Amino acid sequence: MQVCFQAAAMVLQYPDEDLMSRLDLVERSLAGSRSEPLFAATLAHLRSKPLRELQEFHVQEFDLSRRHAMHLTYWTDGDTRRRGEVLAAIKQTYRDSGLIVDLDGELPDYLPMVLEFAARGDTERGLALLNTYRASLELLRLGLRKDGLPQEGVVEAVCRQLAGPLASSRADVQQIYGATYVDAPPIEQVGLETYQIQTGRPVS
């Protein structure tokens, strides 16, 4: 489980030279596991283009587009004031673990961060967070599948480590995991400055 979570945390983040140098290590760590074939498309994608093009792709698909938002609470709480309370609760989970978690300018619900926390920090608390936001993971996975993005397999591999079946549709997510907003997360027009998803990651 931890190997899958760590590998997913690495390949779902903004690509840089460090990630490129570790792709072979990621592939070897997954060899022979049930997750290995689910990572294949993403690893092939990361090896198929120059780094700058990969970075531009990531910014376009995961930073500027909310169709594939990597922030788990976006799918449950959208851009609302309540989301700020939920983000604070996730921060408290990190504190309760007794570990120092470097947010590095990200929101605490950023999927690669939660995955790394579950893999290398506090597995019990990290796994609880992932299960709490299983509906978010399913909605992200279905969005990636609909748009034909290679990262779908990685998110599926994560979901297969968690309790409950894969959803085949947004209606399934609502029925199985109790998702409230399966079409579009809610938006409030007031008081959002603190909680909006960060975008515009620089491309080097």
Provide a brief overview of the structure.
It holds the Pfam family Nitrate_red_del. The chain is an all-alpha fold.
Structure commentary:
Keywords: Nitrate assimilation. This is Nitrate reductase molybdenum cofactor assembly chaperone. InterPro entries: DMSO/NO3_reduct_chaperone, NO3_reductase_chaperone_NarJ, TorD-like_sf. It comes from Tessaracoccus rhinocerotis. One of its GO terms (molecular function) is metallochaperone activity. It is a single chain. This protein has about 200 residues and is mostly helical. It has one domain. About 60% of the residues lie in helices and about 0% in strands. The chain is built from twelve helices and no strands. It has helices at about 1-10, 15-20, 25-30, 35-50, 50-65, 70-75, 80-95, 110-120, 125-130, 135-145, 150-160, 170-175. α1 runs antiparallel to α11 (about 150-160). The radius of gyration is 16 Å and the shape is globular. The chain starts with a helix and ends in a 27-residue tail after the last helix.
